[in-house]
């Protein structure tokens, strides 16, 4: 299918050009793409092989079609047939006149040389008898020269008349386009003013009747999980602000000293134990460290002094509309962008930045209760978005085979490794090991769409977290990020959607809802709410906060079913103890606004280090030039690297086609430090760390690394 056809396919369609085709046994086929995985079973091994061959041939054809489209991706929209015919006729006429001018020029040169020779001979004549014949020859040649010159002049006149006629036509067309652009700019400016006026009016309007502040969910105890798979409807649907939904269940803070555990006046009440909620609990202690440096385990001082600043961001002007107008409706990862839109970090480094609040997982290791542990895992999942509130710039797309390591085993207790395992679609595998008792791994595919007014970024793939001592295995997926005001106004980013965190050992669940920003909402912006429940569906904790500031946890001591809402949904009332702060965002460093709003950890991610792999993002030249403020050189280097990667991709595709024609198997690109396996928990085909990187670093043996820079 073409890209246009893929935008209107039914739910569940897989794009073969980016799909992975694997065989499990003699009759089974695994077909996966991003977050979707299909298991197909043939009747026999012969039939399976026929299907695999057909799928591989179809994939090769789809790749060729995609490349043909991507080669034309920077072109303008095709003109109508009449415009093409008129343009072709004009060019043909101009070419004919140009050929006439060229012929006349050759004749003038030829006759001019002959006339010059005749004049020279005339000057050397001594005999009067010969002078008559020579003068006659000179006159004949002068006549030929005059005729040729007249022909050239006439051809030039025709050419100029034709060019002048079309010049007026083109001038009128250009003037029309300029007027249209001015009208469009005025309309957008007027809309922006109306936007600001409406926002100010809404903020200044008096609030409606206020009741008990609550959190929303469904009365039956579960919210549909965010599956992470972006359907075609998700990509095409445009969302607008709506009126605030009525809370479906309410939280009321109870006094543990006067709380009675009777529940006689509450229908279906479930009771907890307020005496278990110890404000001095060693695990549920407040995480209110004032800075990143203070949080890096005070008993372990860093052995290496890390940098605390980078060069200030240059103030380069850029015509945004000239680039963006050709990008509407296209996949962002396929659009060549200058570094002016970037920040000097790669996507692999941004993925590693999720570990900024790793101490939440260190505390979760100490929890004896799985539901308490779930609270810290939920806070950790929200904390990864805190750095995005001001970070509207785009990270560098990693090259295929690019890696990034963050070895903080001695300082912070963990070491992290990322590798770009696929280019189209862009996919990165990530593995983190902590000596304090947990391991995290994920494979994230980024799907993004530019719709003119906003940019949607949809991470696909599951995040896995396992605690060594208890064996608790948590899985969740990320929500959708949206960048607003792409063309006009100040850029701002929002997170929306729902996260379901599941402990696959104890079956505990946490439902988190990221409320999208709305002009009409009375809630605080960037609000996140959720409930932690056990395998039986009994709610134990309420999570509340914002994804850019903090998350709090309140223990539920009693719950009841209240009255029904206007929509027919039954409200649930939770009585809770006083909330405790599990996570609070660290303040940004001084002068952060001139350093891309980087956090203290982000400032150290691209700091040069020795002994890293030659494919490490720190060694990427265009990214390093941009960080140094040399953006023009960075753009040139970026184009060189992308062209080098395209050449490798074309060679690999040619090898694939040749192998298919010969009936041989072609594995394609094989990740260096990760391998594809079917996950036992989710059933998806994902890349997991196979080992060997840190051993190669100890030996400084990087012979297997590709040359990508």
From TrEMBL:
Q: Where is the PH domain?
A: 1-60
Q: Name one GO molecular function term.
A: cholesterol binding
Q: Name one Pfam family in it.
A: Oxysterol_BP
Q: Which UniProt keywords apply?
A: Coiled coil, Lipid transport, Lipid-binding, Membrane, Phosphoprotein, Transport
Using the record, list the residue span of the signal peptide; answer none if the entry has no such feature: none
Q: Which GO terms describe its cellular component?
A: cytosol; perinuclear endoplasmic reticulum; plasma membrane
**InterPro entries recorded:** OSBP_sf, Oxysterol-bd, Oxysterol-bd_CS, PH-like_dom_sf, PH_domain
Where along the sequence do coiled-coil regions lie? 174-201
PROSITE patterns noted in UniProt: OSBP, PH_DOMAIN
Q: Where is this region: Disordered?
A: 65-87, 204-237, 254-309
Tell me a GO biological process for this protein.
Answer: lipid transport
Question: Which residue ranges have biased composition labelled Polar residues?
Answer: 284-295
User: Locations of Low complexity compositional bias?
Assistant: 207-222
**Localization (cell):** Membrane
Q: What is this protein called?
A: Oxysterol-binding protein
Bilayer topology reads: Peripheral membrane protein
Family, according to the entry, reads as follows:
Belongs to the OSBP family.
| Gene name linked to the record | Osbp2
